[in-house]
């Protein structure tokens, strides 16, 4: 019985209200005097308690010289509480949407630690996108985000992906970057770069487990250049698709000579991840 009292308290019943309601579930209709006697609620409090339950719609009253009370069936009460809770959640969600894109957010860069946490943030960004998603991602992380990206595409968001590894999609524009294993080895890990609606970005290393690091920001000073880096990678992918032979003749397979040209390390590898 203590458990049901705790449950009713979580449904915004006071202790006396819970006792009165449960008493009426066991036997009804009852007068106020009988409810007090059966439930243990003090007679000096019972009519105030019953009035509150009536006003909330948890019990019904039959008026007369001696009013009698009967409970709303438990299933109906639960359905009513669930409906009210969902309405409150909907109102709260709409209210808090006004703050999700605040000036405060637009002027800060937020650190995210851990691969799971980074992907959770990307999912949140995907959910809020309305027009366009640009994403550079490895196959491993793409598979964890595919359902969220599909849902975005189904609501009309244009999804474009630069994929490292064999990625197939029936809802996105996918540019496959072959040599993904060589790129992973060259950089010492996998990264992820997300841009949504040209207004927010998530960028970081996602292959270090709990030590993965990324940043999320709406700061235009970073959103613009990071988004444009993705777009310029798309330019390069388009050029390779149409003129690969010519470009590789000048710069080596997969433009390896260009990557070597701008490396500062003698082994031609990137050493961001120590």
UniProtKB/TrEMBL annotation:
It comes from Fredinandcohnia salidurans. It comes from the Bacteria. InterPro entries: TrmB-like, Tscrpt_reg_TrmB_C, Tscrpt_reg_TrmB_N, WH-like_DNA-bd_sf, WH_DNA-bd_sf. CDD domains: PLDc_like_TrmB_middle. It holds the Pfam family Regulator_TrmB. This is TrmB family transcriptional regulator. Residues 109-171 form the Transcription regulator TrmB C-terminal domain. Residues 8-74 form the Transcription regulator TrmB N-terminal domain.
